[in-house]
Amino acid sequence: MLLDTIKENIAEFIQNSEQNFVEKLDMMQIWDQPLIGVASASDPLWEKLKEHGVIGPEHLTPEEWLPGAKSVISYFLPFTEHIRSSNRQKGLPSIEWLYGRCEGEVVNNNLRKLIIELIESADGKAVAPALDKRFKVANHVSNWSERHAAFIAGLGTFSLNYSLITNLGAAGRFGSVITDIEFEPSIRPYKEIDEYCSKCGECIPRCPPTAIDENGKDAESCSKFLDKTLKLNKPRYGCGKCQTAVPCEYQNPTRV
């Protein structure tokens, strides 16, 4: 099956690609093996995302990205223990985390391209919204949310700090590809948007700009702190404090 071939190629890419290792940091590995899920392009939740208070009408559906879309392949790339442990201290993000966040996104983009190539080699069409010229972010809101795509694909639910908690935790990055090839959707084993969050609140004191409280996260404060890390570490930036040294760092805390 094509989906099995895609999964095998993803696993090989993460294990063997030189891009997944940082030479400047003693060949530090960035990503561990990912979780992969599939959502139907006709799932009614895509239209739900267009509602005000969810994301908004600017969020495009799979069909709007790719006419004739049938499926969305979504994946979660978890950071390695080396990167996660380096960022558990308080204060500014670790150098390892910054490299993982920025060099790791280069790996993520090339993984998106690999999936597109595999689909096109099987005479399918595919689009990775994050690589498309139509992709945009305005006022901290994008017209394609990787985390919401992962939620629809059954990979996890949201946390207090708006990260997405998977069965491999929240410390990592997401990616997705839309295709006109139909794959069987993954089971979505939850009903609530925050079902995997234990509401422990341990991410609140972890946030350097105090952008998180019991009601959620202030995106503007978070963004300003990221801008600060960029000025200090240009061209790299990041934080990840709310994703490390917390119960949901590398596991689903409600299933421990």
UniProtKB/TrEMBL annotation:
Residues 187-217 form the 4Fe-4S ferredoxin-type domain. InterPro entries: 4Fe4S_Fe-S-bd, 4Fe4S_Fe_S_CS. One of its GO terms (molecular function) is oxidoreductase activity. This is Epoxyqueuosine reductase. It comes from Methanobacterium veterum.
